[in-house]
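Before relying on records like the one below, remember that each one covers exactly one chain. Contacts with other chains, cofactors or solvent are not represented anywhere in the record.
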Amino acid sequence: MSGRVLAAKALVVGVVALLTGLVGAGVVVPLGSAILRANDLTVLPVPALTQLRVVVGVAALLAVTAVLALALGRLVRLPAFVAVSLVVIPYVLAALPLLPDDVSRWLLRLTPAAAFAVQQTVTEYPQVVAHYAPSGGYFPLPGWAGLALLCGYAALALGLAVHRPRRRK
């Protein structure tokens, strides 16, 4: 497969995942907040622009993860669900209080799961003493940095997939 074909596939996969993510997150974020409020559960107030940032960020996360899955599939013949699991499993391990906080923070600094920071809507204040940990919804990187890290992994995998030596039959 030539680099142009792989780039075209990555573009199509990325755009489809982005549009699907925009629709999905665009429905779930406001609807989920409304359902929680209707059931008398506490939902922190979030400005509309922050909600929009979360929706667009989640859609971008899905798009870049889809491109990463395509590149890993081409590079090492991984099925798509395995490639997506490389992003999701570190997030699950860090978000659930299964690991020490420092290990969780490092997982969310070094792995593609750092991109889940686009979901963060709460702010850490230095004058407030609280448990600022991934299990509490606090990410060690800002959303843009986590997404940039995922983009770096996807770009590296895509570059390696393009320059992978062809196998002889």
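Residues 35 and 41 are 9 Å apart (CA to CA).
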